Amino acid sequence: MAKNLIEKAIDWGRRKSPWIIHFNAGACNGCDIEVVDALTPRYDVERFGILQQGTPRHADVLVCTGAVTLQTKDRLKQIYEQMPEPKFVIAVGTCACTGGVFDGCYCVNGGIDSVIPVDVYLPGCAARPEAIIDAVNKLLASLEEQQKSEENTDE
Amino acid sequence: MLMALFHILIFPGLLFLGVYGLIMAYLDRKIYARLQNRQGPPWFQPLADFLKLLGKETIVPELANKKAFPFLPVLALAAVTTAYLYIPLWSMSSLYPFEGDLIVILYLLTLPTLCFFLGGWYSGSVYAVLGSVRVITQLFSYEVPLFMALLTPALLANTWSLSGITQYYAAHPLYILINIPAFIVAVIACQGKLERVPFDLPEAETELAGGTFVEYGGRLYAIFKMAIDCELVVVASLIAAVFLPFYTGNPWADFGLYIVKTIVILFIFALFRTIMARIRIEQMVAFCWKYLVPLALIQLIVNLLLKGVLA
Known about the structure:
- The complex is a heterodimer of chains A (155) and B (311).
- Helix content of chain A is 42%, strand content 17%.
- Chain A has a single domain, classed as Rossmann fold.
- With 155 residues, chain A is an alpha/beta fold.
- In chain A, helix 2 (30-38) crosses helix 5 (129-154).
- Chain A has helices at residues 5-16, 30-38, 70-82, 94-98, 129-154; strands at residues 19-24, 51-52, 61-65, 68-69, 88-92, 108-110, 120-122.
- In chain A, the strands form two sheets. Chain A has a five-stranded parallel β-sheet. Chain A has a two-stranded antiparallel ribbon with strand order 4-6.
- Chain B has 311 residues and is mainly alpha-helical.
- In chain B, 71% of the residues lie in helices and 0% in strands.
- Chain B has helices at 2-9, 14-35, 45-55, 68-85, 101-122, 126-157, 162-171, 180-193, 205-208, 218-243, 251-275, 281-310.
- The relative contact order of chain B is 0.15.
- The A-B interface holds A 9-14, 16-17, 19, 41-42, 44, 46-47, 49, 52-55, 57-58, 60, 82, 84-86 and B 29, 33, 36-42, 44-45, 47-59, 127, 205-206, 208-210, 213-218, 221.
């Protein structure tokens, strides 16, 4: 069954308006500074429709930084569960991808994907703002491909 | 009957107001971005946001009031749309004028604020409740100067009907100059009504994580956002009708003039939003009662005296 016009319009809206929420799962603050940097007027992410939201209920993309510590593990899961479907996760920084230098530490659970599913991994210590914007764009490109393949397999 | 339905649902009702609200939201964001020396969003951004929110999962929290929580956004949008029907757009008279419609419009514009308050109150989140308390505190401080500022021109025109006021000032264009203090008070008080910087305390993203709308997501938030965008249009139209009554007599030209007037007022709003920072709640209350109310009172006395002189 092909998608009808309303579903296509909603797919288009999803690609054009990624609202993000930023969560620090236990980073050294390096990546957080870079995320905040990416949101400044200098990089102007509003060009791509990216807006920062204060609450997980409004957000589509969870931008996570840092290795998950035992303290933040449950909070991260809660925030992920509070986001309405469809939702995506970007792991920003090497620690968020794998645990980085903190991997194996007594208080560290591992990378973000040890707790919640991750869509885009963005390595770097710290990840640059340009790379963060590129990660969101890659996520949207993969979303477009997925939407197209859904349409083709349905037919 | 059919004509009334057309007026309510299509033009100038829900559909036109919604589309114009999206355009105004875009212009607001674009002007804001250009004033910050950046590129800003593409033209379809508010539409994309709206469609995306419509397609998202709608969550009603366990602690929220199951009946009131989904109902309040719709009520807010309905109240704003109703208020729009009583504002003159392409002529000096609105579609359904009657004596006292200015007061009805003002009360219909208070309804969305009450919906924000109740929406936050019933959503069962501490952040939302704090935002709600701020909504009501703010309401008590900007509502008095706003009402006084919009009702003093009516006093001079000797009518409570918005169409009557527009016609009076269109006939005596120089009297507009008398109302300049009221215009300033109205524009500043409207920043509180629309919950924009510097009076965006109820939403205060950095403190309250979204304030009253913390628990609203998906379709319900889309309707709330639409109500806010439409409220911006209605408030701008109301100020244009009361303080900028310039008409040519040709409906098409007047409609173009109406668009120009609302965009000029939007530009003033966007300028306020760019150059100011958020102030604290007690500073907001003190500012409204210490400066806006006396200014509106002076305007009231001047208009009362002038009414005696001009009569």
